[in-house]
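G., the chain you wanted modeled:
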Amino acid sequence: MATTTRKTRTPGATEPAPEVKTTAQQADEALDAILGTQSTDQQPEAIAIEQFDAVAEENIKLKEELAVLKKQLGQKNEQAAAANSDIKHAVFKRPVLTDKGWDAPKE
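Predicted structure as tokens:
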């Protein structure tokens, strides 16, 4: 038989209670470990209104560019559909195997 070592405890000795951390504290510690920074409970700096205005203007310009590109894409799709409608179906010169069996050449 294999023998295992027995854990001994001193009667009357108490172990220190483990420190209880909240999930938020654990998340902050993990983030600090990843970023290498120390978290503080300071409020973030205020962002200037001009920055919001600049982003809004850029957003408007991008939406206008997107509208123009969508219009061009629609026109190209219409041209492609018109070109595809002009294509005639293939004419078989030899018998072809289809879902319904052998199909004879069409003349």
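Strands lie at 96-98, 101-103.

Shout if anything looks off.
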